[in-house]
Design goal:
By secondary structure, the protein is an alpha/beta fold. The protein is about 35% helix and about 20% strand. It has a single domain (about 30-210), classed as Vaccinia Virus protein VP39 (Rossmann fold, 3-Layer(aba) Sandwich), CATH 3.40.50. A 7-stranded mixed β-sheet has the order 3-2-1-4-5-7-6, with helices on both faces. Helix 1 packs parallel to helix 5. It binds S-adenosylmethionine.
Length: about 220
């Protein structure tokens, strides 16, 4: 469901303690911001932030960042994160096309793409977040042992993503067309959209990919 516009969302976000407004200043300095050298995992298109709130509690030894381009869901996400009391979590109001303004090469250890918009019309394929130009950016920003995790309900986005990953030098090392009945089901942390689609009886597609021959960044 689309959220009602909140005219104060920008102001509330910029002043929220877990929201990072000066992301350009943090580029290359995220570990200093978190005050530790733990790995940094980034969820791209975090929505209302259910995954981040749960993941940051389950894995306190990871630093978690949610990137979202729409203010209203991100504000809800930041409030959800605040309720956890966790310090290993931050929120970034940013369009993914500008990811390189916020992160330095090799700075990220994992990207999550959870239920990204499938952009089903063929003429919109370059907007899909697994289009090759995006994949090249993710590869640059990943650390040498970094990886990318994707979950989706869309078989067409999944197939497109597999093709693009293979075309751009990634190695798919885990894969399932029914995550909830796979070996990865037990440790899976669900997102809002995932629960919605799984509740309708739809299978969840999953993959984990690493750049071929590792990554030379960092
Ligand atoms: C379908 S929702 C999924 C939300 C959440 N990841 C989940 O699984 O419940 C996709 C989210 O990605 C965000 N998004 C789409 N394109 C984006 C972009 N270019 N930059 C940042 N966020 C984006 C949308 O605003 C939306 O909140």
């Amino acid at each position: 469901m689309r959220l009602r516009r909140n005219p104060k969302a920008i102001e509330l976000l910029t002043t929220h303690s877990l929201s990072v407004a000066d992301y350009e200043d943090q580029k290359g300095n995220w570990k200093e911001l978190f005050g530790n050298s733990h790995p940094i995992y980034v969820e791209l298109g975090t929505g209302k932030g259910q995954f981040l709130a749960k993941a940051s509690t389950t894995y306190p030894e990871i630093n978690w960042i949610g990137v979202e381009k729409i203010q209203e869901p991100l504000l809800l996400a930041a409030r959800k994160g605040e309720e956890t009391g966790n310090e290993n979590i931050r929120y970034l109001w940013l369009d993914i096309v500008k990811l390189q303004e916020a992160f330095a090469p090799g700075e990220i250890d994992r990207f999550y793409l959870h239920f990204s918009d499938p952009w089903p019309k063929t003429r919109h394929y370059k907007r899909r977040l697994t289009y090759r130009d995006f994949l090249e950016v993710y590869k640059t920003l990943l650390s040498p042992k970094g990886d990318l995790i994707l979950k989706t309900d869309s078989d067409s986005l999944y197939q497109f993503s597999v093709d693009e990953l293979q075309e751009t030098g990634w190695n798919i090392i885990e894969q399932s067309s029914d995550l909830h009945h796979s070996q990865w089901a037990e440790t899976n942390i669900t997102t809002e959209y995932e629960e919605k689609f799984a509740g309708l009886g739809m299978p969840i597609y999953y993959l984990r990919a690493v750049p071929d021959e590792g990554n030379t960044n960092g």
